[in-house]
Amino acid sequence: MAALTCQEMVELVTDYLEGRLGWRDRRRVRKHLSVCDPCTRYIAQMRETLELLGTVPVETLSPEARSTLLDAFRDLRR
Amino acid sequence: MAGDESELLASLRAGDEAAFTRLVSDWSRPMLTVARGFVSTEASAEEVVQETWLAVIKGLDRFEGRSLLRTWVFRILVNTAKTRGVKEHKTLPWSTVAGEDSGPSLDPALFQAEGEPHPGGWRAAPAAWPDELAVEGSVLAGEVRGELQSAIDTLPDRQRIVLTLRDVLGHTAEEVCEMLEISQGNQRVLLHRARTAVRAGLAAYLEGS
Questions:
Q1: Domains delineated in chain B
Q2: Strand partners, B122
Q3: Local structure of residue B82 (DSSP, 8 states)
Q4: CB-based burial of residue B153 (10 Å sphere; 0-12 exposed, 13-18 middle, 19+ buried)?
């Protein structure tokens, strides 16, 4: 089977990290990473990006909106 | 239906306020994320989420448990958001043809072309990122968070929704597929393109270009 190019490797990163590759492709990825420092760095940067994404704050409903909803729940479910 | 789901449903039907409060606090972030893809403003998305919760409260007795509670709630959410989005003349995120979902996800110019010594190989290796980035609470990590936020904001709607649900809010692939009623394959394609774009945005920022 043909070896992966770096460009092909980059397109497999998500499937690889998600554990969705079949054993053949997983082996091709590991083989490529064992000899390719740039792709090893790329995948490390992707992991670092994911770590950082987990720290980005996300808006939620305002406390006022939540208390309005609780009142509605109380009224309707009594 | 999962055991803890039928318990949750029974609590809600019995008027358990703590269960309802917990549910609202657990699900409102992903709900706002999804709603935001269909409507024009944050305020509008917030109204859609509130309207959805009201419909859920009223509809609890009618819910037959043929789907997961989450699927049902998100279906109401999406329908409410769509109606609102149409009124606001916003292009619906899931109706666009998948042009943005095909082709290479990373700029082909980063790789060598046919006829060069290593076709498909990196033209130049990705530049190293500063170690400080990994230090929690560092100035750089703080700056980068703002940069990530704008990288997320510029993603196409569907990619932004999937990435936010998965990587920012930490939902599993299964949960995201349920919420959005999309296939695992579709979910992964959107996630892959979004992650690739966000890493590239971060790389561009760190390399100061």
A1: 3-87 (1.10.1740.10), 103-208 (1.10.10.10)
A2: B111
A3: H
A4: exposed
- Enumerate chain A positions whose Cβ falls within 8 A of a Cβ in B: 5-8, 10-11, 13-15, 18, 20, 37-39, 41-42, 45-46, 48-56, 58-62, 65-66, 68-70, 72-74, 76-78
Tell me the residue type at B81: A
**Cα distance between residue B183 and residue B158, in whole Å:** 13
Q: Do B15 and A48 touch (CB under 8 A)?
A: no
pLDDT one-digit tens code per residue, B74-111: 999 999 999 998 888 777 676 555 566 678 899 999 99
Q: Which residue has the tokens 């790789």?
A: B111
pLDDT tens digits, A31-54: 999 999 999 999 999 999 999 999
Place of tokens 């290479």: B104
Contact at 8 Å (CB) between B46 and A62? Answer: yes
